[in-house]
């Protein structure tokens, strides 16, 4: 009997480890109707409507909602936008923690949910941030997505694997390791990941077979005991394959569950990234992308783009140009505007960064999209946050005017149906 | 590519703009420099002739533009910028007295700034890298390049983080010392003639700038964070130039504009060395953090012009020849100029053909929906001082006399009036019955580590250096000391210089914090003043401060003897600035506080004192037990460091091998001593030091005196603190039990009769 406990415990452990979904919020009680606001849904023009919220989600948006029992939250004369989404941030991570990375690193392990920058960002209407490693090594680690609140919760521990290619900022590139070498590194690691995955798959199959054999062997042992005959030989355990932990970490990537998020600059690197992703058959998020204006017509629909509106210091090739955003918008390519790093304090100025692109020629609708709906899509959360539509999480920001204007004040911020900043809570 | 294309029509417009026809601008948001008005702006050849209601006669042939709610403002004013300069005039090779106006370039960047950012006037200032920067000039963006309107509106001094660490002073105290010296000499006459602009990086810098307050006004550039500083700036009538602010700045810095305006301080904005776009970005960030749009716009126009003392026409619409029409509010990052009239000439015109579509994508907001910005927190009110208070406790330890059971203390106006076992309770007195507690004088730390180690590295002898110039009175170190029961602390300079400068005796809380602004003069005899120095000058010329400093004990003492000899032999050595400053300090009544940790230093100190007939206070003298009899004979008091943690004992570091019995040995020999928390070892509070010494042979009375009265004597403040006696300040410590029991907690701390720390009812959580 004792020989059976080990597999049972193992099974129990797997069940427990799967656990509850990370980032599930305790839903707010009752129904709430935000009434009379001008709604900017994040992916379309403004309209005046009520928003009905139940269980932390938006259940209806419209003018004549059947919601007599709902608590009314008056927002007449005010503007309602989805919580802003920062598709690349350094929020909650100390600078040193972003210094160098490996593919196996998880930013979720480094994030401090009680960071003050998170509270400040929340006060400015930023409700979701993707926390990424710094660009100081080819492989940075796995992006975490945070839902800000008190404290912040981790929505996703593996929202993509971050890599940087062709960026020399703050990085010790050994002599002879060219951009070509870096691409070799990326492609090679992806290849190893695929091989690792195959051997892991083989191991899983063998392990499952072993478990089945173990059960039938136990039955035989019992029978043999009863019959007082010689018990049969125990089945052999399959050998655990030896893996490169970094390659193994990329399993979600090669399976297509998470994207490769790569910071590249310059036309040649952008095209290189598109080619590598196509060959490897993986989902790609392009970040930085200085000079993408010239190849805006060659970006496939499956690829997401994250742009920086403004960055200080750094090498000239990585200096963002708002003209890139204007060119992408003209070609109908969706993109996000993000705060990048290196300081998490920047996240709260996300609307102001979008405003800088408006100055360069983007329309306000396009700029708002880039920090809400399209930013959520770039984080792989397009069906959960970033818009005001039924079925999405009730992350709402109530403002007294144009969301992209510095003179506008945040009246309240709601996360998951609960007012977490301003208002009377 | 796109930008280049869109610039072409603008350039064409510029060429065709000469001899412009009169313009009539109609808008609901005209900012005249102070307020928003609705109506018409008439721009003729002479400039703006009318603002507000429609004039009776519109000029003939005028072009009328209906702008809706697009704002119309005067040209913006950038205070403190490098725009228009050919090079940074305070570069590494600084030239004092030179006006930034002498360094003007061709003005291309200024023209761009006018066209893209609506900036029409600027104050060009030297950079922040040199302590004494130079003259500031006011310039205007004219049609034919920059025009200097005044080449000396103020003088720039920099205390901020821009000061170069390898050339300039390495400490704020060093900057203060150099400034005082400069004012004594050639800068003094300038101080009487011009306002000073002081670049500050922190609240401490601002405090120092205020201390220098020149008679012709002071403008602080930088961002003070605390509202107390803002109140102080308002009281002194100081104006503040903020910027450039960046998104990475801490929230407190970004909020400073709102805080300053809330306290009534006049502000302006600047782009510094970040380029023209930084001006409006700074204003936009300040608005994001609570400043009102009107205040921000005023700071960008008339308010800013007033700070720089620019002519009346700058920053106001009426009479101005610089007018800007914006696509949205100028403090909105998404906005840009639609029409720029510079010096009466149209230099940008994006509405020549047709007004671009409205920038907003919202339906018109309902009236009154806009909320007032949240008002900043009120500044903390100073606690009211009790008029007359009678304190009763189960035990009062006055130090000046024997302990009193069930003692009573009468306090009036922050002073102790009477103490005794059976005091009558007079009429109209507040009573404070503390029950089972012990009342003793607030503890005195004879050498505190609160300020950390501040060293001025540019010289080894700095007698003019004063710790008070540098110490941040709001530093959390004071609160930590207060929580340990310390009410008074001696704060000295770091130990890297042979003569470090003047320390200060400070209270840890209360309203009057400074007991002695310039107390003892620090002298460092041990290894500190030579550690890291290099004696070998043969290989390279002495370019760094480590080359100039002494590298042996003998050299240190030679320098000390040289300085002390200057006192007698004035004729020969008084020419030396160091010796003169040293003599000045001693004449001023400063005692010499000599750091001497090991036996040979103590013996040398005794010998030198004997040679020159001076008196020393010996600091951190952990080997004092070995020369106790000599010290007693000389009558020199000793400040003992606290013993280091056992894990650090026995290390090679000087003073790490302290013995706990030293205090007991000194008491037996009759040497006066006190405890200081700054020491070679791990810093602990002075009560813990007294407890450890008591455990190792010191008498109970000696232990208590060493942290109160003796320490106050050594610091020269025994007539005010350190004992409970009539006439002394009511700086009191209330403990839960025996002061020499490690488990005893601090219950209350009073400074000048006011409660500054109260842990009653907080259980044992502390």
Span from first to last CA of chain A? Answer: 57 Å
Given the C-alpha coordinates, what overall shape of chain A results? Answer: globular
Number of helices of chain A: 10
From the structure provided, what is the oligomeric state, counting identical versus distinct chains?
heterodimer
Mean pLDDT over all positions of chain A: 83
* Helical coverage of chain B, percent range: 25-40%
Strand content of chain A: 15-25%
Total DSSP E strands of chain A: 18
Mean pLDDT of chain B: 82
Unreliable spans of chain A: 1-27, 169-177
Query: Which sequence of strands runs across the widest sheet of chain B?
Result: 6-7-8-9-10-11-12-13
Outline of chain B: elongated
Q: Provide the helix percentage of chain A.
A: 25-40%
Please supply descriptive tags for the structure shown above:
heterodimer, A: alpha/beta, eight-stranded mixed β-sheet, B: 766 residues, alpha/beta, disordered N terminus
How does this structure look, described?
The complex is a heterodimer of chains A (425) and B (766). Chain A has helices at residues 2-18, 116-123, 179-227, 245-249, 251-254, 267-280, 322-330, 350-360, 364-371, 373-378; strands at residues 31-39, 47-54, 57-62, 71-74, 79-82, 84-89, 126-131, 139-142, 144-147, 153-156, 161-164, 260-264, 284-288, 304-308, 335-338, 396-399, 410-415, 418-422. Chain A is 31% helix and 22% strand. In chain A, the strands form three sheets. In chain A, strands 1, 2, 3, 4, 5, 16, 17 and 18 form an eight-stranded mixed sheet that branches. A six-stranded mixed sheet of chain A has the order 8-11-12-13-14-15. In chain A, α3 (179-227) runs parallel beside α6 and α8 (350-360) packs antiparallel against α9 (364-371). Chain A has 425 residues and is an alpha/beta fold. Chain A starts with a helix and ends with a strand. Chain A contains ten helices and 18 strands. Chain B has 22 helices and 34 strands. By secondary structure, chain B is an alpha/beta fold. The longest helix of chain B is centred in the C-terminal third of the chain and has 16 residues, at 553-568. Mean pLDDT of chain B is 82; it is low at 1-18, 92-97 and 365-385. Chain B has an eight-stranded mixed sheet. In chain B, β33 and β34 form a beta hairpin. Chains A and B meet through α7, α8 and α9 of A and α1 and α9 of B.
């Amino acid at each position: 009997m004792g020989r059976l406990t080990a597999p049972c415990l193992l099974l129990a452990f797997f069940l427990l480890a799967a656990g509850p979904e990370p980032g599930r919020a305790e839903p707010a009680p009752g129904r709430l109707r935000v009434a009379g606001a001008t709604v900017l849904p994040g992916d379309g023009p403004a309209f005046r409507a009520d928003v009905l919220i139940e269980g932390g989600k938006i259940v209806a948006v419209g003018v004549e909602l059947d919601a007599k029992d709902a608590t009314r939250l008056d927002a007449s004369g005010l503007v309602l936008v989805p919580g802003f989404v920062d598709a690349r941030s350094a929020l909650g991570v100390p600078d040193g923690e972003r210094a160098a990375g490996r593919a196996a690193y998880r930013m979720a392990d480094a994030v401090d949910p009680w960071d003050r920058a998170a509270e400040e960002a929340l006060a400015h209407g930023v409700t979701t941030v993707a926390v990424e490693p710094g660009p100081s090594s080819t492989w940075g680690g796995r992006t975490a997505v945070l839902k800000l609140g008190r404290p912040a919760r981790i929505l996703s521990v593996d929202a993509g694997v971050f890599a940087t290619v062709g960026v020399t900022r703050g990085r010790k590139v050994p002599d002879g390791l060219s951009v070509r070498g870096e691409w070799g590194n990326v492609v090679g690691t992806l290849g190893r990941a695929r091989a690792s995955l195959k051997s892991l798959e083989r191991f899983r199959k063998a392990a499952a077979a072993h478990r089945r054999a173990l059960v039938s062997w136990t039955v035989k042992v019992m029978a043999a005991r009863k019959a007082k005959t010689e018990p049969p030989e125990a089945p052999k355990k399959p050998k655990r394959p030896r893996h490169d932990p970094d390659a193994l970490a990329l399993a979600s990537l090669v399976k297509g569950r998470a994207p490769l998020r790569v910071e590249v600059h310059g036309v040649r690197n952008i095209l290189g990234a598109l080619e590598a992703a196509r060959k490897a058959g993986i989902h790609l998020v392009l970040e930085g992308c200085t000079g993408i204006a010239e190849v805006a017509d060659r970006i496939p629909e499956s690829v997401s783009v994250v742009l920086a509106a403004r960055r200080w210091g750094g090498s000239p090739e990585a200096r963002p140009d708002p003209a890139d955003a204007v060119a992408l918008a003209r070609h109908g390519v969706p993109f996000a505007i993000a705060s990048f790093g290196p300081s998490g304090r920047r996240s709260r100025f996300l609307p102001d960064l979008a405003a800088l692109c408006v100055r360069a020629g983007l329309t306000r609708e396009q700029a708002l999209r880039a920090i809400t709906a399209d930013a959520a899509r770039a984080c792989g959360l397009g069906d959960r946050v970033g818009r005001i539509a039924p079925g999405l999480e009730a992350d709402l920001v109530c403002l007294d005017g144009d969301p992209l204007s510095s003179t506008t004040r945040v009246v309240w911020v709601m996360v998951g149906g609960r007012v977490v900043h301003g208002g009377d809570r | 590519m796109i930008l280049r294309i869109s610039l072409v029509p603008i350039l064409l417009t510029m060429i065709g703009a000469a001899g412009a026809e009169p313009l009539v601008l109609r808008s609901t948001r005209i900012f005249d420099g102070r307020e928003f008005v609705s109506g018409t702006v008439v721009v003729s050849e002479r400039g703006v002739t009318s603002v507000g209601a429609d004039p009776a006669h519109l000029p003939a042939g005028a072009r009328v533009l209906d702008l809706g709610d697009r704002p119309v403002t005067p040209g913006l004013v950038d205070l403190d910028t490098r725009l228009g300069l050919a090079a940074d005039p305070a570069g590494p090779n600084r030239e004092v007295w030179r006006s930034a106006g002498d360094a003007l370039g061709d003005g291309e960047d200024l023209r761009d700034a006018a066209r893209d950012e609506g900036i029409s006037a600027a104050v060009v200032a030297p950079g922040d890298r040199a302590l004494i920067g130079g003259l500031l000039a006011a310039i205007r963006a004219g049609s034919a390049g920059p025009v200097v309107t005044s080449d000396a509106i103020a003088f720039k001094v920099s205390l901020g983080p821009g000061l170069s660490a390898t050339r300039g002073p390495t400490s704020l105290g060093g900057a203060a010392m150099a400034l005082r010296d400069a004012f004594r000499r050639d800068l003094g006459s300038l101080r009487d003639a011009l306002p000073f602009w002081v670049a500050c990086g922190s609240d401490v810098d601002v405090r120092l700038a205020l201390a220098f307050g020149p008679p012709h006004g002071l403008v602080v550039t930088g961002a003070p964070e605390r509202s107390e500083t803002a109140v102080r700036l308002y009281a002194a009538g100081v104006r503040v130039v903020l910027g450039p602010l960046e998104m990475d700045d801490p929230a407190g810095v970004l909020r400073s504009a709102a805080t300053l305006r809330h306290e009534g301080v006049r502000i302006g904005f600047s782009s510094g060395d970040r380029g023209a776009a930084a001006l409006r970005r700074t204003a936009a960030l300040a608005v994001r953090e609570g400043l009102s749009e009107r205040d921000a716009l005023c700071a960008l126009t008339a308010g800013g012009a007033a700070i720089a003392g620019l002519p009346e026409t700058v920053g106001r619409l009426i009479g101005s020849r610089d007018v800007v029409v914006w696509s949205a509010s100028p403090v909105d990052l998404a906005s840009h100029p639609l029409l720029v009239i510079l010096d009466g000439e149209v230099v940008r015109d994006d509405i020549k053909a047709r007004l671009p579509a409205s920038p907003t994508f919202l339906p018109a907001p309902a009236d009154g929906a806009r909320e007032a910005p949240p008002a900043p927190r009120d500044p903390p009110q100073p606690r009211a001082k009790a008029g007359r208070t009678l304190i009763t406790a189960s035990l009062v330890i006055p130090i000046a006399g024997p302990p009193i059971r069930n003692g009573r203390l009468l306090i009036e106006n922050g002073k102790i009036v009477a103490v005794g076992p059976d005091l009558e309770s007079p009429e109209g007195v507040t009573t404070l019955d503390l029950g089972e507690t012990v009342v003793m004088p607030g503890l005195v730390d004879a050498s505190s580590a609160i300020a950390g180690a501040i060293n001025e590295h540019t010289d080894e002898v700095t007698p003019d250096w004063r710790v008070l110039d540098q110490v941040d009175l709001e530093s959390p170190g004071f609160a930590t000391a207060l929580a340990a029961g310390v009410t008074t602390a001696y704060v000295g300079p770091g130990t890297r210089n042979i003569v470090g400068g003047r320390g200060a005796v400070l209270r840890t809380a209360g309203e009057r914090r400074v007991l002695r602004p310039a107390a003892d003069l620090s002298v460092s005899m041990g290894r500190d003043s030579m550690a890291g120095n290099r004696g070998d000058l043969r290989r390279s010329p002495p370019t760094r401060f480590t080359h100039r400093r002494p590298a042996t004990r003998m050299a240190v003492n030679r320098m000390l003897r040289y300085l002390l000899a200057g006192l007698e032999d004035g004729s020969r050595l008084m020419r030396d600035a160091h010796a003169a400053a040293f003599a000045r300090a001693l004449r001023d009544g400063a005692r010499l506080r000599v750091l001497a940790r090991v036996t040979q230093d103590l013996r040398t100190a005794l010998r030198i004192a004997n040679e020159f007939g001076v008196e020393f206070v010996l600091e951190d003298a952990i080997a004092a037990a070995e020369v106790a009899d000599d010290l007693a004979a000389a009558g020199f008091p000793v400040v003992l460091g606290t013993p280091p943690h056992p894990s650090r004992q026995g290390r090679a570091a000087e003073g790490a091998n302290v013995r706990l019995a030293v205090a007991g040995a000194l008491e037996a020999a009759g040497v006066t001593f006190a405890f200081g928390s700054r020491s070679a070892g791990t810093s602990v509070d002075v009560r813990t030091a007294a407890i450890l010494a008591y455990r190792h042979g010191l008498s109970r009375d000696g232990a208590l005196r060493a942290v109160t009265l003796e320490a106050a004597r050594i610091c020269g403040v025994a007539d005010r603190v350190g004992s409970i006696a009539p006439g002394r300040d009511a700086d009191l410590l209330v403990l839960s039990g025996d002061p020499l029991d490690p488990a005893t907690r601090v219950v209350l701390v009073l400074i000048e009769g006011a409660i500054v720390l109260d842990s009653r009812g907080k259980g044992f959580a502390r």
